[in-house]
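Page 47, continued from p. 46.
Same chain as before, 306 aa.
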Amino acid sequence: MPGKRIVSLIASSTEIISALGFGDQIVGRSHECDYPLSVGALPVCTAPKLDPSGTSREIDDQVKAILQDALAVYRVDENLLKKLAPDVIVTQSQCDVCAVSLKDVEEAICEWVESRPRLVSLEPNALEDVWEDIRRVARALEAPERADALIKTMKSRIAEISQKACALEKQPTLACIEWIDPLMAAGNWMPEIVALAGGRNLFGVAGKHSSWMTWEELREKDPEVIAVMPCGFGLKRTRDEMAPLIGQAGWNDLCAVREGRVYLTDGNQYFNRPGPRLVEAVEILAEILHPGEFAFGHQGTGWEPL
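Result:
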């Protein structure tokens, strides 16, 4: 089949495209696309309008200020996009805060006359949506059979973990924290991931956007395990941002803290990206929830104890 020039403007779609076997046809990426490592050499078509080096609270304040003015959080390099002459552009309409949106891309290419790239917009709110997004990308690249094969492999790996994890007598309660200051509970696909890994999710609703939570709510439900997975943060950055949470009055009284079961994870690479590595997200949670039962080798890279 003839090759297509692909621009991927979200990290998860870059991973999907690569897993489908089309990585060599990606000609441009977003500023957040960093996996597989080979994409690092590609032209970067987007940039944030905020300072990502700020604290959790400062980033949250910046995002809210930008959105209050009805502005986009990210900037699309229209000239570069046009120069790359893509046949397919993959973006998303799930979250205006997490990545470049469909509206951003439509505005960037609205005056193009000489070419009309196909826009593929992903909207993953739950696991079933992730499978459909993989199919959507594969259809756009005229290889639907590759989606079937990839999804089958992912589901098989997850099922193997889930069958063992869910058969265990102990299913610990778990709080998945997607933002530290202010506190946010992980929603969307994460409650399903928790259940598949053999845990009982306390916050966030499957298929619904991640929701704000209060310290009082966290303390009241007193989870047996806490997994911290801030959107866009790796392990080191997550550890650096923990002070506002650890400093809460009563932190040391939490069950998870007393039992030494607070874990930092690489939310950026695994939990915040609705793509092929959600399988690794299930593996990581299985290791965290059921120590001694699972050992996939993710400790130190995908997660570490606080």
